[in-house]
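Proteins fold reproducibly. Next comes a concrete instance:

***
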Amino acid sequence: MNKFLKICSALLVFGLVACSSTPIVSADGETVQDIQSKLLGDMPMPGGARINNENSLILGSGDGWAGRVAIISAQNANETFTFFRDQFQKAGWTLVSSTKSKNSILVFIKKDRTATIEIEEGGFGGKANVMLTVAPRSTVRFLRYIRRN
């Protein structure tokens, strides 16, 4: 239950950040970057990106989370594609597959996890919409994880 409350608090902070232009610090003195690091672990996010809480579902936290995160990138689709392709590899993820088009897809693996990044042109303002989906490579491990938490 304690983990659940922390995750809900972090999502609330993310929602407030989307409406704010100044850095937000939680009651424990954590910045949004600290919370993002705890939630998303070793997955770099583009500068100025915002998480769309309504379309996101995060199970767990840190380097073991699973689920999906809807992201509105501050950059266009080409810049966002390049960011994820380069920065995920620098963070130790292995690029397995990529398709670059109007709707681009990147697939990475790291240890026992798979990350799929879908990038589409956002239209208004040239921003890109991103859907980051992370799942364990083994369904058995995922079910054990869900039962533990």
